[in-house]
Amino acid sequence: MATIEFTAFARATEGRGASRRMRRAGKAPGIVYGGMAKPTPIELDHNALFHALRNEAFHSSILTMKLDGDVTKVLLRDVQMHPFRNEILHVDFQRVDESRRIHIKVPLHFVNGESSPAVKLSGAIVSHVTTEVDISCLPKDLPEFIEVDLSELDVGHSIHVSALKLPAGVTVVAQKTDPVVATAVVPRAQVETDEELAAAAAAAEAAAPVAGAEAAAAPAAEKASEKKEEKKDDKKK
Prior knowledge:
Structural class: alpha+beta
Number of helices: 4
Strand content: 25-35%
Shape: elongated
Radius of gyration: 35 Å
Distance between the termini: 110 Å
Low-confidence stretches: none
């Protein structure tokens, strides 16, 4: 996994007024906490941070923070965004202790959906019900993502969190339920089309004997008609 670095600057002022002035100056206020050191207010370049946040790995990786000449390993813990503007209001980072396990959500990457029986044989659509999972591990074992193999998924079946293949040293944080990760669903329009085709085939099959009987009865009816005509002619004579 490539190292992701960013630069932060010590923040001397705090409070809402100071944060507003900071944001007007193109900075984003934040804080770094955890470990043996006390919480430290920081500020970051807003545009650089905004673009970094668009990188999925920035949310689930051990980050290298450069601050006042020191280098610290941190995790992104929280981002507060403006309700309707692309503006970062505040960001939280947590210092990482290499000897202690961490809890963090990592994204799920789905593969081989196109080759699954559900898609190839039934024309189903694979629904990604869960897109991230909460895990526990040492910082050195933190995966950037967890892969979900859909190659065996069939219609009427689902993949649950308990079935995920986790990297060494990684465990899923205990949950009361076993959430569904992915499931295969046949589109309603496809189901209706299949039902219509089946109904049409059944109707055709049922109509076949009737058509055969009518075809067989036609010559007999013609002969009976001819005999009636002959009797009429005989009477006239």
